[in-house]
């Protein structure tokens, strides 16, 4: 086996039908990375492209052993592609960027510099975003407000792929759905320090955007999931148990009063509606608590089962490793 090579920086780029952009992207990236004078690797994840993306990537990889390729069996989505990149990356710092040249590779050094200042995540903020207003920028502005408010992690631009991460904060994240945009929020749960810097954004010149306005409902649903996972108060037993405790307690108190009347004062309680209420409250109280317990078990089981893989790899090409 070859000795493990220590790598400082991993660049992770998801690619889905970006054949026309890949050569330019690589040409722009190379001088930026060379200038850093640090060890690096560039990981392209081919997310089931059906254009010439993969042959083009292979040709680049052949000439440059610092380029590594992961080819998915089919299109699993941008989140899965980024997750595969995170799993495979060996660098201490991981930088993600889009494969369509909308992000500017020249923003990478400032991102890394911020990480050097002690932040765990540095997120790009596309101040002058070059996308359509009505279908992209407006929904995104609303989403950013909403996500910031709900997750308490205040960022102006969650949707920007250009971000830098310290390795340890992303290595243990479990991503699925459209979850990649929520990484800062998820990482805040494990105490990551997060900041943002303004980055350049350019219009897409070649190829098509892979998303439409139809993405919005999915993002909102994922936001609910993230909120659910982040907030302690949504643990089911705490909610159901609270109601169960109140109803059960009231039922028992009424029951005690009625028993006192029946047993000590020798009153007849058979015709009292309050008796029914006492029984009802006690039983619902017990049911609330057991329901909470069941929900708790289901939530746990759900989290365990989410260890399921969200992508399947057809091929990995990496000149540093023995497998290829
Ligand atoms: N992408 C991907 N899998 C997908 C959709 C997109 O890997 O299913 C990649 C795509 O190739 C690009 C990046 O994710 O590198 C961002 O996609 P796009 O530019 O279409 O998104 P937009 O900038 O329009 O939000
Ligand atoms: Mg784009």
Structure description:
This protein is elongated. The protein has helices spanning 22-36, 53-63, 78-88, 108-116, 133-151, 167-171, 183-188, 215-230, 236-263, 273-305; strands at residues 9-15, 40-46, 67-72, 93-96, 121-126, 163-166, 194-199, 313-317. The two termini are 12 Å apart. Helix 5 (133-151) runs parallel beside helix 8 and helix 9 (236-263) runs antiparallel to helix 10 (273-305). The longest helix has 33 residues, at 273-305. The mean pLDDT is 90. It is built from 10 helices and 8 strands. The chain is α/β, with parallel strands linked by helices and 324 residues long. It has an 8-stranded mixed beta sheet, sandwiched between helices. Strand 2, helix 2 (53-63) and strand 3 (67-72) form a beta-alpha-beta unit. It has 2 domains: 9-231, Spore Coat Polysaccharide Biosynthesis Protein SpsA, Chain A; 236-301. Uridine-5'-diphosphate is lined by residues 14-16, 18, 47, 75, 77-78, 81, 98-100, 102, 209-211.
In terms of topology, how is this protein built?
Layout: E1 9-15, H1 22-36, E2 40-46, H2 53-63, E3 67-72, H3 78-88, E4 93-96, H4 108-116, E5 121-126, H5 133-151, E6 163-166, H6 167-171, H7 183-188, E7 194-199, H8 215-230, H9 236-263, H10 273-305, E8 313-317
Parallel strand pairs: 1-2, 1-4, 2-3, 5-7
Antiparallel strand pairs: 3-8, 4-6, 5-6
Helix pairs in contact: 5-8, 9-10
Bound molecules: uridine-5'-diphosphate (UDP) and magnesium ion.
